[in-house]
Design goal:
With 220 residues, the protein is mainly beta. The protein has one domain. 0% of the residues lie in helices and 51% in strands. It contains no helices and 18 strands. The strands form 5 sheets. The protein has a 5-stranded antiparallel beta sheet, with no helix packed on it. A 5-stranded antiparallel beta sheet has the order 9-18-12-15-14, with no helix packed on it. The relative contact order is 0.26.
Length: 220
């Protein structure tokens, strides 16, 4: 019988340090499922490079959430999130972001597959004030689900630790930045087997603010 419980699939994270970027920004190729998966892409960086993604298999990317412009940078930075539900995939799957607004600028782009996931059941987004522990808003599921949490630091910190609680495991991160700087980000996930309401807290050092996302995918 075909597996119908969602699970974390292939994933990667593209990073361009400040001053060393190019356009377009293209992720490392990953091998995704031909059908049945949903995909997440987040674009964190300069507002002038805040374009929607395109990908190898021509998926339809729907923006989710609002504009949490980074505090302290005069509105120059932002994070946008996009989801392709029940998408197409295959070998050599890449995502690209146009950076024609400022090609050399820093950018971080997580690209995450959730297999056997036809529905984005819930999504939460918040921007807590700086603290050692920052907690996401909650998502609610009606059955087995894959939860994907994304942390984005908002200050000029070059050596950062960010650790999620509540059963989440980090799968990709860019927290040790080069001298030229970059956009801090960490991606974590958790599998849940039953309906419920879930959130995640991140313990960070040194203290700073962070934009937090939490996605809940189900098969239906």
């Amino acid at each position: 019988m075909e597996q119908t419980i969602p699970a974390l699939g292939a994933h990667t994270m593209l990073t361009h340090p400040e001053g060393l970027g190019v356009t377009p920004a293209v992720t490392t190729p990953i091998n995704t499922q031909a059908t049945g998966s949903s995909f997440i892409v987040l674009n964190g960086g300069y507002v002038k490079n805040g374009f929607a993604p395109t990908d190898t298999y021509g998926n339809h990317w729907k923006r989710v959430g609002s504009d949490p412009v980074f505090n302290g940078y005069d509105g120059a930075f932002d994070v946008k999130a996009y989801v392709a539900q029940s998408g197409k995939g295959g070998g050599g799957h890449t995502v690209r972001i146009d950076k024609s607004g400022y090609p050399q600028g820093e950018i971080t782009v997580p690209f995450i597959e959730v297999t056997h996931a036809g529905v984005l059941k819930d999504v939460a987004q918040n921007y807590p004030a700086p603290a050692v522990v920052m907690t996401s808003d909650s998502v609610t599921t009606t059955g087995p689900a894959t939860l994907v949490a994304v942390w984005w630091g908002d200050a000029g910190v070059q050596r950062m630790t960010a650790r999620p609680d509540n059963g989440f495991t980090i799968v990709d991160s860019f927290l040790q930045l080069p001298d030229s700087s970059g956009v801090q980000c960490a991606v974590a996930y958790r599998q849940v087997t039953e309906a419920g309401t879930y959130r995640v807290s991140w313990v960070g050092s040194p203290m700073q603010g962070a934009i937090l996302w939490l996605f809940a995918f189900q098969s239906r």
